[in-house]
Amino acid sequence: MEPMRSYGDSPTGYESGIIKDSELLSPPILESIVFGVTVQWDPKSISAFVEVANSTVVAMDPPSWVTQPRGQITDTGFMSDVMSCLLEVAGGLDRENDLAPNTFLQSFSIMNRFGHIEADPFVQTCMAKLKPGAYFAAIFVRYECPGFGIQSARMSGPPRPSRQVFQ
After folding, report:
1. Which helix (H) or strand (E) holds 39?
2. Res. 16: pLDDT tops 80
3. Which helix or strand (DSSP H or E) is residue 98 part of?
4. What's this model's pTM, rounded to 2 decimal places?
């Protein structure tokens, strides 16, 4: 173990390496990367979910972010409501299924919001009525810095017995 240093002493070789590596992840570098989040909907699962959500099988009310009254929820309206809920923490809406551009922190907030939607009791109760393997959408993260790339967000599912809603 190295002895304690006084304020103003030069950093050790190890500390210099850590400082150099940390500079690579400094906010200006991270904030210069443009992140997009693309939602690829599963139309069959959305239709099945909406059918259950409109039925009397589920006794609870939909979450506040669902704008259509129960019994009148449509596939398009539900997908729009999910995107509006995500847009609250995103940098913008590039297309109807694409949130962009986002900073690193906005992308992180979007991923958290996916988790909030997935954990909603109404959503989970409706999902429990669907066939195994049903999910709302596959999620992809796009990035530009300086090149372009896209990859699956690899969403981790919630603990059992909850169902995974986003993949």
Report:
1. strand 34-41
2. no
3. strand 98-102
4. 0.78
